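User: Structure with adenosine-5'-diphosphate, tokens only please.
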Amino acid sequence: MAINKAKIITITSVKGGTGKTTTVLNLAGTFSTLDKRTLIIDLDLYSGSIAASLNINDDNNVYRLVNDISNNVFDYMENYVTAYNDKIDVIAAPKDPRMANKISSKYLSIILTRASMRYDVILIDTNHVIDEINLTVMDLSDEIVYIINNDPMDLKNMKTMISIYKDMDKENYKIILNESADRLRDYFTKYDIKNIIKDNIDYTIPASFYIKTIDKYVLDGQILTLNKNIIATHKNAMKNFKMIASSLLKEKDK
Ligand SMILES: Nc1ncnc2c1ncn2[C@@H]1O[C@H](COP(=O)(O)OP(=O)(O)O)[C@@H](O)[C@H]1O
Ligand SMILES: [Mg+2]
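Assistant:
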């Protein structure tokens, strides 16, 4: 029997607030409808919001996991995750941000190796800071997905990041232009953007996916891509998420 190996996908950005966490949740919803066992790991260690967005308990968090590994009392991965539904499990960010700087990047590889055996997809939420944790997790990922907004500073920073990837000969990154979180901005056309960042936008989350009442869904712990009303009223965006999810799965491991 072949050993299962999850696709590890890290969602990141070059500035804060671009829609990473919302996209992680929406992609998790989409992967679950594609029948993929999905683990979300919240590595936005200082201000994680996955558990709160899903209304789940954060007892199973990255700090508890790392602490048990370092004390040699870690047993089975299933004892360190919280189920959201029958396909989506979560490892929350630490309850207390003061625990965040006690988390050493050296444990990430063992966590991902163990989790890989139990899931089809591991989705990692991050913050936009380039620190040891984020660099390590990006290195361990099959795909790195940048969520960018249509705004000049974000595009300029993305351009710099792309040139770093090109220098390093790393090609396992994708760019999602998220027009739903700041739909009032449309400074640049796709053509302009391509010229600014000197690369292609791989996918777009359209402005039509702006959900005015998004906070209500967050308070209810709901994932937008699993909500009947949203599915019925945002067919195009749903198609987009399916396309993004299935093409991320198809990318070859590098
Ligand atoms: N499709 C959307 N419609 C309306 N608001 C959105 C949408 N996606 C994201 N937002 C809002 O944009 C803000 C930033 O999103 P978030 O996912 O938390 O970004 P990040 O994780 O990058 O900080 C949040 O207030 C969120 O509610
Ligand atoms: Mg976030």
